[in-house]
Every structure is written in C-alpha cells, then in structure tokens.
C-alpha cells in the first residue's frame, strides 16, 4: 500500500496534489483545510487557557480545545478516506462487461462506488461544519492576541465544507437511487447555507474583517 | 534550528498548529492554503495536457501548469517565512530597556520586527492572488472531469489572500511609519477586493457552485 497522505510532508502533499496523479485532489485538500481550521480554532482556545485575564472562560475554552482536537483528528483521517473511496469506483470500471449478468454486476458496483464517493466528502463536510461554533466562541471570548487565527479558522472551515460538498455534488449527478439523491441534496443545501452564513457572521465579529462582506 | 514546517507531516503540521506553540498560526496556514490552491490549479492543467479532446488548449495549459508550479513553490517557502518573521519582534521584546538609549534601540527594533511581520504576509497575499487567473483559466478551458478541483483552488486562494492580509492588518496597527501604513492599507483594500470578486466569478462559472453567491 502506498504511503498515507497524512504522513507525507506538507511540501510533498502539495507536490503530489499538483501532479496528474488521480489523488489527492480537491476532496483531500478540503479535508486538510478542515483539519487546519479545527487546528486554528483549538490553538486560540489553547492560547486562552491558563491566562489570568481569561480565567472566567477557562472551563469553556478547555471544552472547546477538546472538541477542536477531536474534529482535527477526524478530518486528518478524511484526507486519506477521500482518496480511497475513489478506488471502489475505479475497480468497478475495470470489471468485465461481456454478458448481461456481468454488465448488471458492473453497474451495481459502479453505483456502490459513486455512493461511497459521495458519502465520504459528505461526512467530511458535516464534520467541518462543526468547527464554526468553536471558531465563533474563540473569536468572541478567546485570547484577543490570536483573533486572526480564529478568523482564518472560520475561512478554512467554509472552504472545507463547500469544497467537500462540490465532491458530493459531482458524484450525485450519476447516482440513480432517487431517495439517496433527494436526501443528499437537502443536506447539501443546508450545509452550504451554514458554511456561508457562519463564516460571514464570524468575520463580522472583528473590525479586522467586518468590512469584507 | 527547529525542523522546517514544510518538512513536517501533514498531520504533524496540523497538530503543532493546534498547540499553544507561537508558530505555526494563521499566517503559515494561509501560506499553506495558497500552496494547495496553486497545486490544485496546476493539477487541473496537468490533467488537461496530453488529452486529445483538449489539444487546442494544450500549449496554454502547459504555461499555466508552469506558472502554478512556481507559485506553489513560493507559497511553500512562505509557510516558514511567516513564522520566522515573527522572531525579530520577539527578539526586540527581550532587549534591555534600562536607559533611554536602550529604550530607543528596543523601540526601533520592535518597529523593524513589526514591518517584517507585515511584509511577509503581504508578499504571501500578493503571490496567492496570482493563482486566480490560473484557476479561472483551468475552470473555463481545462479538463471538465477536474472542474471541482479548479473551484476548490479558487476558494483556497481566497482564504490564503484574506488570511494573509489579516496578519498584515494586525501588525499594521502598531506601525508608526505613516507612509508605510498608507501604502499597505491601499494594497490591502485592492487585494481583498480581488480575492472576493475573483473567487465569486470563478464559482459562478460552474453550475455546481453558481448558486452559492
């Protein structure tokens, strides 16, 4: 098995992304953006904990730091999941299609692959969308010296959510299961709205970024 | 000297960001976002080159891939530059301040540090802003199978530019050199406008994302 993407160097990951290798692409990059969004939100919480000036929010910041930690770990794993989900579909493409039976089996496997390739970025988008409440809380109550880190966190989370959803959408177009498509379409709309509104709200909380939108 | 951030693993970089270590923070993360934006734009160009269907744009794609390559390399270096620029200021903070002379020298060094800490993310923002023309061209004329990668590229570039500029702004507030501040303020406004408008334009080019804004 090839080296996991999460174990590549920052530079190596960017280099491989740029190449014509099938993975990593926008899906893995979105998961990486989400992991960094969670990391920045957690960093602001960690820079607030233990400071006399922020004693009152210490307990809240500890909870936020732990939540951010869990989201970061999950999104780091999503970097590799996104690439491996793609493989089921590629396997299906390579299946024999000589008899009607084989054709049906191949089609079914392709549908399975497409659903997996939609499910993985959907989970990534759902996970990344949970970062906003942390970014918002740390920008509102966290160490003001790190406010820009909280703002960048919100921007990275928006990119992670919408980027992952683009990868859901592109697969959704070929999925025949109408109930699946309807369920996912509703989820997409809700998550896109959340990502855009939450980021806007958080950027509006600092005079460094409140004129942007 | 500590390990360069670009040589850390993707996971290790995210972990260190989350910690209360002074670096990496939003500045380095923005540079990383820029590098990934350039990587994705380059990837779409590379997935277009050599395909019969896209023969007509082959030469253009080769030029775009090379440009994206150069921007990615520059932005990868910016990940570490951002953190090291911070050190001049931290050194100044530690300088003696017993005599008037020492106080003046310390103040001057602090101003120097602040200017460096504004200059590095400004260069990062300027570099990342050059990605949009590549994202736009690959979304418009590149391999349509990779269109989502081009769209994620535009979103990552927007986050990179605005994120880097937040780090310029936060330092600008303490810089006494009025000409420097005026020059930088004008640059910031222009780059912010570019980032927001370009991303919006590029997202509007695909029916996967044209309803977002």
Uncertain runs of chain A are none
Q: How many helices of chain A in DSSP terms?
A: 7
Rg over C-alpha atoms of chain A, rounded to the nearest angstrom: 20 Å
Rounded average pLDDT of chain A: 95
String of helices and strands of chain A: HHHHHHH
CATH topology of chain A: Four Helix Bundle (Hemerythrin (Met), subunit A)
Briefly, what CATH class of chain A?
A: Mainly Alpha
Biggest interface, which chains? A-B, 58 and 58 residues
The computed structural class of chain A is mainly alpha
Strand runs of chain A, count: 0
How many domains in all of chain A? 1
What would you note in describing this structure?
The structure is a homodimer of 213-residue chains. Chain A is an all-alpha fold. The first copy, chain A, has a single domain (26-203), classed as Up-down Bundle (Four Helix Bundle (Hemerythrin (Met), subunit A)). Helix content of chain A is 76%, strand content 0%. The first copy, chain A, contains 7 helices and no strands. Chain A has helices spanning 10-18, 26-48, 58-93, 100-129, 131-141, 147-172, 178-203. In chain A, helix 2 (26-48) packs parallel to helix 5 (131-141) and helix 3 packs antiparallel against helix 4. Chain A is elongated. The N and C termini of chain A lie far apart (46 Å). Chains A, B: It comes from [Clostridium] aminophilum. Chains A, B: One of its GO terms (molecular function) is catalytic activity.
């Amino acid at each position: 098995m090839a080296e996991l993407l999460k174990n590549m160097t920052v530079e190596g990951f960017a280099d491989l992304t740029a190449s014509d290798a099938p993975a990593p692409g926008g899906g893995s990059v979105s998961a990486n953006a989400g992991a960094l969004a969670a990391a920045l939100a957690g960093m602001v919480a960690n820079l607030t904990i233990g400071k006399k000036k922020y004693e009152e929010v210490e307990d809240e910041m500890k909870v936020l730091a732990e939540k951010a930690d869990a989201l970061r770990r999950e999104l780091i794993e999503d970097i590799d999941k996104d690439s491996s989900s793609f493989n089921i579909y590629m396997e299906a493409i390579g299946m024999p299609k000589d008899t009607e039976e084989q054709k049906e089996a191949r089609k079914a496997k392709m549908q399975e692959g497409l659903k997996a390739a939609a499910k993985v970025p959907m989970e990534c988008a759902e996970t990344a969308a949970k970062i906003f409440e942390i970014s918002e809380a740390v920008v509102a109550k966290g160490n003001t010296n790190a406010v820009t880190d909280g703002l960048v966190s919100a921007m990275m989370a928006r990119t992670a959510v919408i980027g992952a959803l683009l990868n859901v959408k592109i697969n959704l177009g070929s999925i025949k299961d109408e109930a699946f498509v309807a369920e996912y379409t509703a989820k997409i709309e809700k998550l896109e709205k959340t990502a855009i509104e939450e980021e806007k709200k958080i950027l509006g909380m600092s005079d460094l970024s409140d004129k942007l939108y």
